[in-house]
């Protein structure tokens, strides 16, 4: 697979980083000091050979799972188009799950069903069901779309003399 040669600790960092894309945690799991893991992780992500190995691993993973940025963006678009009317009948009752559109069945975060009753003991009678359906966070979904396509609506940028453009975080780091 990848033909980039790195010291064992850096190779381990790459493997760990691919698990959750968290450089600090990856550095810790790879055996770097907990006290300096934040800085170490950031430094490692600036090394060309580390970036090259990460790219190779990501490319191979995309091939393996047959997913790419287009697939992810398509799914995000489907989620954005979800409409609660698609899972309700004409009287506003929730349809049986088998009748829901596929995107709903694949995307909801959870369903909670609670039986509602009147009375207690032997005189208790079921009067209905309370159904709570948790669907994806639409705002987070749009933020993900905005990062995927060149909208960059949530990235604050600063212009410096010489035409260099930095993100807000990069500018703060330079100023500190």
Automatic annotation (TrEMBL):
Entry keywords, A to Z: Viral genome packaging, Viral release from host cell
Cleavable signal peptide: none
Coiled-coil boundaries: none
Lineage top rank: taxon: Bacteria
Key word Transport present: no
PANTHER family in UniProt: TERMINASE SMALL SUBUNIT, TERMINASE SMALL SUBUNIT-RELATED
Protein name, entry field: Terminase small subunit
């Amino acid at each position: 697979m990848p033909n980039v040669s790195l010291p064992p600790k850096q190779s381990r960092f790459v493997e760990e980083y691919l698990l959750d894309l968290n450089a600090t945690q990856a550095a810790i799991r790879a055996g770097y000091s907990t006290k300096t893991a934040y800085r170490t992780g950031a430094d490692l992500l600036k090394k060309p050979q580390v970036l090259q190995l990460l790219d190779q691993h990501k490319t191979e993973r995309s091939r393996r799972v047959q997913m790419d940025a287009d697939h992810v963006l398509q799914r995000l678009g489907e989620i954005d188009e979800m409409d609660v009317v698609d899972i309700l009948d004409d009287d506003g009752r929730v349809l049986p799950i088998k009748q829901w559109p596929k995107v709903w069945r694949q995307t909801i975060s959870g369903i909670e069903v609670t039986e509602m009753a009147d009375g207690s003991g032997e005189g208790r009678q079921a009067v209905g069901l309370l159904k709570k359906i948790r669907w994806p966070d639409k705002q987070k979904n749009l933020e993900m779309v905005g990062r995927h396509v060149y909208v960059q609506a949530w990235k604050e940028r600063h212009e410096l003399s010489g035409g260099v453009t930095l993100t807000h975080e990069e500018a703060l780091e330079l100023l500190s």
